[in-house]
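Sample 3 of the quickstart, ligand zinc ion:
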Amino acid sequence: MYERIQVKQINDHIWLLDDNGDSTGYLVTGEKSGLIIDTMTGYENVRAVAEKITDLPLAVINTHGHPDHIYGNVYFEKVHIHPADIAVAERFYQDPVFVQAIKETGLHPAEFVPVTEGKVFDLGGIELEVYELPGHTPGGIALLDRKDRILFPGDSILEQTWMQLPECLPMEQFLESLKRIQILRSEFDYLLTGHGSELVDASFCEVHLKAVEEVCMGKKDNDVPYTWFGGTCMAHPYGKEPRRIVYK
Ligand SMILES: [Zn+2]
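Result:
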């Protein structure tokens, strides 16, 4: 078994699970249960890692359907996801490398349980509420932990935001989603993102929103070509490296 997941304790009931720098998941516990937010690459058994931390019953949710956030779903029976991202996830389940891996291990991806805005995971003293945040993917969600004043936005509010993928929605729609999340801004002070190693000050939301707005308004004078594994697109830099909005 690979040992990739570095566990970092954020407070007495939140743990950051850094999957070898490839992506980040979280374990949040209350008095009666726990929630795993994203299962990451699946190379290491995230369930076993979480069960070393807590013996509470665990629910699982994917912030969105990208492979670096869902492949560890093979270690669970049921995983919550927004219905608009089930097709995205199932497409990545057909990747030949993943197909080969599940053939070799005999594991199978969890059954998806659709979850939409307003769903509250009541962990006992800690509640996490689902908010829809479409853009990076059609069914992206954020989770708000009001007690800790933390928002978990997945890949939607990241220093380097990828909006060039085939499943990404138009930038204007992403901008509308980000503006809608701003309504909650008085209820959180920190972000825990899908590719982070620490708490991020939530004032980053405004910086990030402004950058997305600039792309939508056509302020592209400083934009540069950006090469990724799917080809070359464009990137809108804002602030210091690696801050950029990558777009089609
Ligand atoms: Zn993603």
